[in-house]
Write a structure and sequence with these properties.
- It is a single chain.
- By secondary structure, this protein is an all-alpha fold.
- 68% of the residues lie in helices and 0% in strands.
- Helix 1 (2-21) packs across helix 2 and helix 2 packs across helix 3 (41-47).
- The relative contact order is 0.09.
- The model has no long low-confidence stretch (mean pLDDT 86).
Length: 79
């Protein structure tokens, strides 16, 4: 039982770290979660949470990120 708790905690940190790496990392691990022919099923099961239970971010974070990447993106017709 204690092993399960520690494992769940470690995987929670792992999933969070993957998400903090950015969308490309998330997409890669989403792909990995679907490849049971390459990766062990327990790894695929753990990574599958990235498909529909990711940590959401706010719209203000999205705006800030887009502004940092593209400048005044709203007036450049990127919206």
């Amino acid at each position: 039982r204690r092993t399960t708790i520690v494992s769940d905690l470690a995987w929670g940190y792992t999933i969070r770290a993957i998400q903090l790496l950015g969308p490309v990392s998330v997409k890669f691990f989403q792909w990995a979660a679907t490849r049971r022919d390459i990766f062990p099923p327990n790894l695929c099961d753990r990574l599958s949470v990235l498909h529909d239970r990711g940590y959401p971010h706010s719209f203000s974070w999205t705006q800030k990120t887009l502004t940092e990447a593209f400048g005044d993106y709203q007036n450049k017709g990127l919206v």
